[in-house]
C-alpha cells in the first residue's frame, strides 16, 4: 500500500490578514444625521503599547489610516467622512444636528456567553456595566464587534457589509 505523497512546500497557504490574531482594539466613531449612518473605524494593532493619552480624537483621525462606513460598506480611507462637515455650518431650527458616538471593542476579550441581547449587540463582548437603551451606542458597539469577529475569523474588513437598525 502506497503512502500519501508529502505535502507540497510551495502549496498556497491561506492568506493571513491579521498577523497578530485577535490582539486588536477596534475604535469606532459613528455619526447619525437624518437617519444616515456613517462611521470612522481605526484599528489599534498595539493595544498594550504606551500611547500619548493627551492626543485628541481629532488629531488621531488626521494621522491614522482607517475605514469609513458609507452606504453599508467599509472602505479604506485616510480621513473620517465628516471632515468635509467641519467648519461653520448654517443650521435652521428644522435641520437636526448630527449625533456622534464612540466605542471601542477589544477583540481579545471575547468570552463564551449564552445571553441574548435584544438590541443586537454581540453578547460575547458585553460587559456587566453596559446599558443597551441608547440605539446609537449599541449600533456603534455592534460595528466594532462585527469587525472583531472578522478579525477572529481571519477575514478582511475592507468591503465588509454592515446594516444597522436605526
TrEMBL record:
It comes from the Eukaryota. This is Uncharacterized protein. It comes from Caenorhabditis remanei (Caenorhabditis vulgaris). The lineage of its organism: Eukaryota, Metazoa, Ecdysozoa, Nematoda, Chromadorea.
Amino acid at each position: 500500500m502506497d503512502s500519501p505523497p508529502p505535502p507540497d512546500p510551495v502549496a498556497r497557504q491561506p492568506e493571513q490578514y491579521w498577523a497578530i490574531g485577535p490582539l486588536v482594539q477596534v475604535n469606532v466613531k459613528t455619526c447619525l444625521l437624518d437617519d444616515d449612518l456613517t462611521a470612522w473605524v481605526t484599528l489599534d494593532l498595539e493595544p498594550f503599547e504606551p500611547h500619548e493619552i493627551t492626543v485628541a480624537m481629532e488629531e488621531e483621525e488626521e494621522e491614522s489610516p482607517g475605514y469609513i462606513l458609507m452606504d453599508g460598506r467599509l472602505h479604506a480611507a485616510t480621513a473620517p467622512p465628516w471632515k468635509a462637515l467641519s467648519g461653520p455650518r448654517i443650521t435652521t431650527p428644522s435641520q437636526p444636528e448630527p449625533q456622534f458616538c464612540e466605542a471601542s471593542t477589544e477583540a481579545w476579550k471575547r468570552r463564551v456567553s449564552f445571553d441574548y441581547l435584544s438590541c443586537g449587540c454581540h453578547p460575547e463582548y458585553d460587559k456587566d456595566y453596559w446599558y443597551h437603551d441608547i440605539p446609537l451606542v449599541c449600533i456603534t458597539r455592534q460595528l466594532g464587534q462585527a469587525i472583531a469577529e472578522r478579525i477572529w475569523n481571519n477575514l478582511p474588513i475592507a468591503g465588509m457589509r454592515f446594516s444597522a437598525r436605526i
